[in-house]
């Protein structure tokens, strides 16, 4: 026990509470035959909640935490003590980390690896005690200056080798802790200018690196999902994992479409010019939906603000696509979200997560009710009913000439039919 969250007791479901409590998230509530907790599979992001110090591009740290500065193993263990205390208060089943979040950088790769081993050994008993599991691990290959020109896509082969060693150590640690996924986020796998970039070479390097990662996972018996997290830009001008469609094309090119899935973040979808539900629906159609990072962007800002979700209609449409995909298997709902830099107090961390969990619970329950109601799916099916006829199926299996011949032979003069968008939006509003 620590005193960082002094006097804050574990949260309960209590809709009438005026204090800290869940008002919509009842972990044991049954939705579509499954516990709400098992649908949502909530996870806390170690980096935003404990490693981030409150800085932004225009100002330095605003948070004063007892584990700052994060430069020795004693403070790393203190941070772990407090992190697991928060997991206990929130009653979350999972957490996630980058290597750099949980251990300080060493003077050599070997020292950094040994520190990672030491802190993950420290995590083990805490996970046993609390019942909190690792949703996924990943490597921070964007923060240190060595990664300024990318990791797998770096023009320097020595950096590629260092990236391989880093991913190997992080995957080993993830497997040791029973992690259910391993994520690759190409934070600087892209370019700032084409004037100094060999795009073809860099894409080949990225593809080979991913093949090597998949091969190593199989070699060590890691049975979790391997995930790529799409993001279009920021920090680089253009990143090779721009969106779900781009990632799928990349996976197909390198023969990995059956090996790797995606971890989709709401904020990244918005930066790519899409909606969250678009990216989820496309991943569902392509069979590569693995997990999600739940957050939101400020629509008046042009960058990735990583705020906690507060828009139930948006969240409901996202979970509608997750449920249409059959729900999560090894993935989950990771709060890749951070406090505003003016939210200084420990209680703000608890309140932010509790509020996000309530929003997700409301959204998922609304999505489940919409799906069980069936009206949206019936109207969608009706719109495409013509394609279920024998003539339409025959046309698709035929050629252009035979399709064209139907027009004159049958005197076809198709008239437009309403898409009924406003009607459909009104139906959604009945539930959210």
From TrEMBL:
Mg(2+) 2 binds at residues 265, 268, 304, 306. Keywords: Carbohydrate metabolism, Cytoplasm, Isomerase, Magnesium, Metal-binding, Xylose metabolism. Mg(2+) 1 binds at residues 229, 265, 293, 336. The active site is at residues 98, 101. Its EC number is 5.3.1.5. It is found in: Cytoplasm. Transmembrane segments: none annotated. It is an enzyme of class 5 (isomerase). Its cofactor is Mg(2+). It comes from the Bacteria. Its main location: cytoplasm. GO terms for cellular component: cytoplasm. GO terms for molecular function: magnesium ion binding; xylose isomerase activity. It catalyses: alpha-D-xylose = alpha-D-xylulofuranose. GO terms for biological process: D-xylose metabolic process. Binds 2 magnesium ions per subunit. Homotetramer. Belongs to the xylose isomerase family. This is Xylose isomerase. The lineage of its organism: Bacteria, Pseudomonadati, Pseudomonadota, Alphaproteobacteria, Rhodobacterales. The gene is xylA.
């Amino acid at each position: 026990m620590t005193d960082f969250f002094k006097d804050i007791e574990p949260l309960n479901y209590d809709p009438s509470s005026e204090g800290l409590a869940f008002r919509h998230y009842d972990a044991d509530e049954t939705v579509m035959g499954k516990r709400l907790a098992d649908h949502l599979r909530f996870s806390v992001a170690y980096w935003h909640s404990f490693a981030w110090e409150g800085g932004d591009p225009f100002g330095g740290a605003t948070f004063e935490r007892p584990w700052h500065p994060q430069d020795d193993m004693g403070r790393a263990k203190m941070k772990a003590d407090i992190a697991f205390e928060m997991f206990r208060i929130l009653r979350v089943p999972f957490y996630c980390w980058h290597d750099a979040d949980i251990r300080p950088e060493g003077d050599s790769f070997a020292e950094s690896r040994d520190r990672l081993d030491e802190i993950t050994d420290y995590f083990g008993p805490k996970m046993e005690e609390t019942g909190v599991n690792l949703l996924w691990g990943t490597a921070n290959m964007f923060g240190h200056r060595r990664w300024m020109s990318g990791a797998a896509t770096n023009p320097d082969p020595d950096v590629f080798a260092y990236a391989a060693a880093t991913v190997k150590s992080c995957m080993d640690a993830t497997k040791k802790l029973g992690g259910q996924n391993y994520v690759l986020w190409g934070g600087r796998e892209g370019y700032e200018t084409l004037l100094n970039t060999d795009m073809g070479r860099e894409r080949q390097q990225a593809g080979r690196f991913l093949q090597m990662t998949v091969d190593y996972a199989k070699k060590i018996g890691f049975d979790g999902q391997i995930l790529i997290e799409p993001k279009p830009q920021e920090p680089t001008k253009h990143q090779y994992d721009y969106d779900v469609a781009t990632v799928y094309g990349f996976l197909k090119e390198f023969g990995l479409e059956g090996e790797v899935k995606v971890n989709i973040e709401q904020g990244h979808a918005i930066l790519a010019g899409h909606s969250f539900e678009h990216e989820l629906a496309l991943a569902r159609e392509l069979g590569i939906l693995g997990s999600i990072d739940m957050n939101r962007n400020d629509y008046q800002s042009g960058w990735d603000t990583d705020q906690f979700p507060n828009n139930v209609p948006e969240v409901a449409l996202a979970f509608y696509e997750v449920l249409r995909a059959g729900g999560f298997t090894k993935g989950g709902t990771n709060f890749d979200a951070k406090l505003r830099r003016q939210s200084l107090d420990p209680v703000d961390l608890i309140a932010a997560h509790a509020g996000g969990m309530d929003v997700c619970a409301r959204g998922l329950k609304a999505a489940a009710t919409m799906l069980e109601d069936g009206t949206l799916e019936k109207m969608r099916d009706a719109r495409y009913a013509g394609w279920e006829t024998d003539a339409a199926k025959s046309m698709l299996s035929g050629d252009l000439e035979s399709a064209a011949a139907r027009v004159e032979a049958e005197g076809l003069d198709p008239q437009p039919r309403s898409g009924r968008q406003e009607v459909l939006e009104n139906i959604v509003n009945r539930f959210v």
